[in-house]
Fold this protein.
Amino acid sequence: MSTTPIVSNNAMLDTTQPILLITDLEPDDAFAFAVLTAARVKIAHVLVVNRGNEDHWSRDKLTNELLTTCKQFVTYTYCSAAEMGLTLASTLTTMQCKRIVCLANFLPLVDLILTQPELAKQIKVWAYGSANLRWALDLADPNIVMNAINTGYKAFYLFETHGAFGLKNVASVTTTPEFAQWLRTTQTPIAEFLRKIIKEWNNITLLKYFVRFANASDEPNLKSFCANMTFDQFATMVYGNDDSNKEIRQQFAGILRQIPSTSTHHRAVKIVLQLLDDAYELVFADIGLIVAALHPEWSKHFVPCDLSIDDKRYVCVTHNENSTAHYFISPQEEQKTALNMFASHAIQLLH
């Protein structure tokens, strides 16, 4: 990695100063939380966003388990994104906290600008963009959202995997072999919890596609295969790597590969094939933000700039040395190896 500083290292997360964490507790959030606590970052409070699918994904229950696993005895609030703005303002004031790490919908950050602009000007924000930003753009005026990022805060550090890793954003056996090995074999409480949360998250997808496949009248081989097993048996087949599952996994994969790309099931087939290849692959989104903010060299790649959105709602960057907004950009020559290096550093922090 190049050691030439790009900007001053104000982007590095000071572990002596408390943060307020906003999360929707997806698997990469849980891993990011584990890295934060392993790095001894002081977490003043956690705001857990309910995104409305709690019948399948009990964030409240998982938050308790995550805090216990990481031995973190911090308070947390559980509420909807619509309620989050008021909760965020009152919590920042009560906790006297001047730093926010946002791993969820940006809407609370926009609400804070609109309701407490003077307070927001005292706050530094580290946030993961992409879908989190696009959700806010769907729910609020895009001009207000981008103004909040560009001018609303004392500093705003925006990270997206596209700027860091190029097109690769998934840690798997092919992209990050050391990380994949660690995740599958390490017998520590946090590794075991991460395997559990990844499996539970994937099972939401698997259950939806299992029901779909079992009713796929246009694909009789697929339908009969899934109709002859329970979902538990189906999930065991997907996750099982021992010899007893090998033959049936190969049989199922063969059926899936015969389905044409023009089929209405194509996207589902593609996702399930990926899970058959690597059931514990992990999108490195929120984890990447935390590693970038904690690493003394990577954090220098947050470049001061003005940010805008194109017609496809991707972030556009215009360099501006005087801007309070910053965007993470890996040097082009480092993007091919950046994901693997980030993954290795995450493991080092957890040791």
The chain has 16 helices and eleven strands. The first strand starts at residue 19 and ends at 23. The chain has two domains: 9-168+284-350, 170-282.
